[in-house]
Design brief:
Elements lengths: L22 H5 L11 E7 L2 E6 L3 E6 L5 E6 L5 E6 L4 E6 L4 E5 L4 E6 L16 E7 L2 E6 L3 E5 L4 E6 L6 E7 L2 E6 L3 E5 L5 E6 L4 E8 L7 E7 L3 E5 L3 E6 L4
Antiparallel strand pairs: 1-2, 2-3, 3-4, 5-6, 6-7, 7-8, 9-10, 10-11, 11-12, 13-14, 14-15, 15-16, 17-18, 18-19, 19-20
Length: 249
């Protein structure tokens, strides 16, 4: 928000702690968006930052200078999530229920699909909006109003339904041989890439907002889950709840 006093550069993978951009550097850049825009999602592509928010637009910012270098306009409602696919493309989705694959070179949508158009995933009473997605090569997993589903981009078709019942997912992640998702329930759901449910793990949270996995620094993978209430849940081997960490203010 306006008034933040921290400086560029921002670079992924640095050990200098948390950096926050000086907002005025962005909103004063040529072709930038309105200063009262709220951003809901952000991701790195190389040294650049892609973000989307409540006005339906996406911006690409140079992570070294804070300068807006590209604008992407196509969504008819808020952009809830944006994820890097590769160095040239990224995926976004939001309130309008359409997943768009953008090409940074042309600044155009190269492909799009609507998850609620697949009858297996459609949940009319919950709407068509998308709250979360993740991408791995030619595969996209996404959900929100529609049930969570796995899509293959080369065929633009739904491949597998990842049934969460009546729960609305807030986060989904591709992991080695596994898709993990959670939402407005205490459960973390683990599926194989074929769409078969592997296991359903109960957390000590009423709802899960975000998950993160460390598979590099330890021999045993560790999954963190955060949500409501504020204690962070720590899972060993992705599925065993080891302990909780209180979040102290």
């Amino acid at each position: 928000s306006s008034g933040i006093n921290a400086e560029w550069p921002l670079r992924p993978g640095t050990n200098s702690g948390v950096s926050i951009c000086k907002w005025d550097n962005i909103v004063s850049s040529p072709g930038s968006i309105e200063s009262d825009t709220s951003f809901y999602s952000v991701d790195w592509i190389g040294d650049n930052i892609i973000s989307g928010g409540d006005n339906g637009k996406l911006i690409e910012v140079d992570g070294n200078t804070g300068t807006v270098i590209n604008n992407y306009d196509g969504h008819s409602g808020s952009v809830n999530v944006v994820r890097k696919r590769d160095q040239n493309t990224f995926v976004s989705a939001g309130f309008d229920g359409i997943c768009r694959i953008w090409d940074r070179r042309s600044k155009e949508v190269e492909q799009q699909f609507t998850p609620s158009s697949w009858q297996k995933a459609k949940r009319s009473k919950l709407g068509s909006h998308i709250t979360c997605l993740d991408v791995w090569d030619d595969w996209v997993v996404c959900g929100g109003g529609p049930n969570l589903s796995l899509w293959y981009l080369k065929e633009e078709s739904g491949i597998a339904l990842l049934d969460m019942g009546d729960a609305v997912p807030s986060v989904v992640r591709f992991m080695p041989d596994t898709i993990v998702a959670a939402g407005n329930s205490p459960y973390l759901m683990h599926w194989g890439l074929s769409g078969k449910l592997k296991y359903k793990v109960t957390s000590k949270l009423e709802s899960v907002k975000d998950i993160s996995v460390n598979t590099v620094a330890r021999e045993q993978p560790v999954l963190l889950a955060a949500g409501t209430p504020s204690d962070i849940n720590v899972f060993l081997d992705l599925g065993y709840l080891s302990h909780t960490v209180p979040f102290l203010v």
